Amino acid sequence: MTIARIIRAADCPEVPWKNGGGTTREIAVFPPGAGMDDFLWRLSMARVEQAGPFSSFEGIDRTLSVLEGTLHLSGAVDAVLDPVSAPFSFDGAANVDGVPLGGPVLDLNAMVRRGAYTCEMQRIASGETFTPAGMTFLLALEPQSLGHADLGYLDCAQIDGPATATGYAILVSFSSLAPSASTPP
């Protein structure tokens, strides 16, 4: 197994949303340094403090997984997500409202530019072996060792080869739809 890089949760600055309803921490983006208008894929965590609409992203597909709390999505979709729910995918331009039930929610959000990349997100248990596809990240949902690296809660590892999770985690893979598209190192 090869770990290309470790991204510590504490090293991802927390940025308040414009509407004041929560915060976000960008974990990784491609191409590096891309903004909200020109990314091909983006992985982030968000803390949802108040009920409100999701930002609309035309041409973007989103996949969301709740890490802490319970989130009710309504509008163009209807779902109640919690830390044991399967990841939930929806159109980034859809009119979707999020309501945290019983307190703040922490979620993992993967976004891809439709037609350029796809995203697969799955929860994995301790002892599960996986083989990365495309650009793959493992987000630790409990402290664990991965190869020679120790991951704390919410730390992330970019994985370049087959690996076995040693704790509960979420695996996120971004795959290019264009055979000649460049992928990050």
Account of the protein in words:
With 185 residues, the chain is an all-beta fold. The protein folds into two domains: 101 residues, Jelly Rolls, CATH 2.60.120; 60 residues, Jelly Rolls, CATH 2.60.120. The protein contains no helices and 17 strands. The strands form four sheets. Strands 2, 3, 4, 5, 6, 7, 8 and 9 form an eight-stranded antiparallel beta sheet that branches. The chain has a five-stranded antiparallel beta sheet with strand order 1-15-12-17-10, with no helix packed on it. Strand 13 and strand 14 form a beta hairpin. It is globular, with a radius of gyration of 16 Å. The relative contact order is 0.23.
In DSSP terms (H or I, runs of 4 or more residues), the helix count works out at 0
According to DSSP, the number of beta strands is: 17
Give the ordered list of helices and strands: EEEEEEEEEEEEEEEEE
Number of self-contained structural domains: 2
How much of the polypeptide forms β-strand, as a percent range?
A: over 45%
Largest sheet, strands/sense/barrel: 8 strands, antiparallel
- What is the share of helical residues? under 10%
The low-confidence runs, each spanning 5 or more residues with pLDDT under 50, are: none
Mean pLDDT: 93
Category from helices, strands and their pairing? mainly beta
Radius of gyration, taken over Cα atoms and rounded to an integer in Å = 16 Å
CATH class of the largest domain: Mainly Beta
Overall, the morphology is globular
- In the CATH hierarchy, what is the superfamily of the largest domain? Jelly Rolls
CA distance, first residue to last residue: 16 Å
CATH topology of the largest domain: Jelly Rolls
For the record, the CATH architecture of the largest domain stands as Sandwich
